[in-house]
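Lab channel / #folding
Pinned by the channel admin:
"Please post every new chain as: sequence first, then the structure tokens as a reply. Keep commentary short and put observations after the output so the thread stays searchable."

First post following the new format, from NK:
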Amino acid sequence: MWLVTDFELILAAPRGYCAGVDRAVETVERALELAGAEPVYVRKQIVHNAHVVAELERRGAIFVDSELDVPVGAAVVFSAHGVAPSVHENAKARNLAVVDATCPLVTKVHSEARRFAQRGYTILLIGHAGHEEVVGTMGEAPDSIVLVESASEVDALDFSPDTPLAYVTQTTLSVDETRVVIDRLRERFPWIEAPVKDDICYATSNRQAAVKALAREVDLVLVIGSRNSSNSCRLVEVAREHGAPSYLIEDESAIDPTWLDDGATRIGITSGASAPERLVQRVVQWFRARGDVTLSELETVHEDVSFALPRPIRRALALVDGPAPGA
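Reply from TO:
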């Protein structure tokens, strides 16, 4: 058992909710308000965080694995990770009232994949097999997309120079690891085309940059997030790569006091893009219950990005609230 009674906690900034997650969670909250007594179904986890899902379930949201599990004619919200066109087709066939909460930055990747496929390109999708975002993107052009998970997999590919190639990426990958894969792709296939703008989202890049700076200043980094959150897992990896022991925790109950046995007094805290700020404050309180705490924040960049709610929600709210003043 550690004997330290003084802790210096340094919070990474930015951390926590990104604009896409904030939009998706509010979409479900608003849909529940508008539905009244009618059920609102959500396909898959709206975002990859167990606490967020549990809270929305308490408010009445019904989470299902497939659009086929939603009763005919009912309302359904699609998650922030995006879905394949076949999911939209199934929903239409079941006359579902769809609210699509796909992050606009994921929608951008889908659009890129469609455009490349329509032009006859073979598309190399850099991402993690089985991740919902990857499944949705591959569904846009299943006959044209090849999944690539690492630089070593690039070496197994074989395309002639007359094969039109392009790449797109999952939005929540490690910036550094993805750069290695892209560099290898360009080395092997110099004619490969890139997206007009990087696909890794601003929030993923910003949070990884923040945790790099944090790792250089502390004895230990705690990353708050769920295990199925890709961007949260990447934060742990990045912190370790930059010199700090790091652990992924769902919440304060997952903190192992033995992590502090080696005299760790400067503790860095960050959270994945789908983890609510209240979980950060609960971790801070865990330390305050065990000693004196000095709290500060290490800001690397200021974020001010926001996305409008999906159109069906905006229209429904306008009917309830009436036109804006001066409209």
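NK: The two ends are 64 Å apart (CA to CA).
TO: also worth noting, Residues 19-103 form a domain with the Rossmann fold fold (CATH 3.40.50.11270).
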